[in-house]
Write a structure and sequence with these properties.
4-stranded antiparallel sheet, disordered N terminus, 306 residues, mainly beta, Neuraminidase, globular, 41% strand
Length: 306
């Protein structure tokens, strides 16, 4: 029974999302039916923080980052949704953080920060946990649907911009010129690889933008005058989910620590809009249960073979 979506979203197809939620205490990964609200905890560890979920290409697994088994160290894990088994994919150094994984075929690309003053890097690992490789400096990577190009964030002189590069770290190209001082740019590809979503600074806030794969045809999609981040396209590219908060707490260590400890469940809900930016509104099924982290709410991909 579709009771949570307004009539103007009556054409929304099945919407199965992966989200972070603190409804059970610490941040956990849930799979949620955005229409009915039915949910399932897939990270299942009450004593750890779990973030940045992303689906496998066939929708049978979810990769995420977790600090289970190591204080302040966030490794990658994968949860098999059929067997409920969870396996560890990386073993990074103490205090290191893996984040924003994206998955193409059998390879997972992700950001890695050693938190020792060294430069953050983009890395990859195979889905069986072998083949850990550092690709190049950068943050917030997103692999293109064809597996040939990585979109990522890099700090310039005055802020952050969107770049692309080939999967071997060469052919680096800058797509945006405006230097975003706030961060949380988090570029992501449309399912056909022709367009890209990202966040950019507007009047000291963050709004969502879209551009073609080569950086052309830039257009602003949201006008919320808040901090709109972490966008994700539906498989048919007709809808977009994203996160919205009223404060860029991640830029202030004390505020960040307080925000996570406070665990308010309405401070960074999932929003939904059409791909052209129209009908932007809170997704009511996910209004009061989302964690404060900057994870996307990615859509379960359409079933397809690898």
């Amino acid at each position: 029974m579709k009771v949570h979506l307004p009539k103007r979203f009556s054409d929304l197809p099945e919407a199965i999302l992966a989200i972070t939620s603190n409804r059970t205490g610490n941040t956990q990964i849930f799979v949620v039916d955005a229409i009915s609200g039915d949910s399932r905890n897939v990270s299942r560890d009450a004593f750890s923080q779990n973030r940045y979920p992303m689906w496998s290409p066939d929708g049978s697994q979810i990769v995420f980052t977790s600090d289970r088994g190591g204080a302040d160290t966030y490794n990658l894990y994968a949860a098999d949704l059929q067997t409920n088994k969870i396996r560890k994919l990386t073993d990074v150094r103490q205090g290191g953080i893996c984040y924003f994984p994206t998955w193409h075929k059998s390879v997972i690309y992700f950001g890695y920060d050693a938190c020792d003053g060294s430069e953050a890097v983009i890395s990859r690992v195979k889905e069986d946990g072998t083949g850990f490789t550092v690709v190049a400096p950068g943050r917030d990577p997103a692999i293109s649907p064809d597996g040939e190009t990585i979109a990522f964030t890099q700090k310039t002189k005055a802020g952050y911009c969107v770049f692309t590069m080939s999967i071997d770290g060469t052919q680096v190209r800058r797509l945006t010129e405006h230097e975003n001082r706030i961060g949380a740019v988090t570029p992501t590809w449309s399912s056909d690889g022709t367009e890209m979503l990202y966040s950019d600074e507007v009047d000291s806030k963050l709004e969502l933008f879209c551009c073609d794969q080569d950086g052309k045809n830039k257009r602003q999609l949201t006008f919320l005058k808040q901090f709109a981040t972490s966008a994700a396209w539906s498989p048919d590219a007709h809808f977009i989910t994203f996160r919205v908060t009223d404060y860029d707490y991640w830029n202030y260590p004390d505020a960040k620590e307080y925000a996570y400890k406070e665990r308010k469940a309405e401070k960074r809900p999932v929003w939904i809009m059409r791909a052209d930016g129209s009908d932007a509104q809170i997704l009511e099924t996910l209004h009061y249960q989302c964690a404060m982290d900057g994870s996307r709410a990615p859509w379960k991909p359409e079933a397809k073979s690898r």
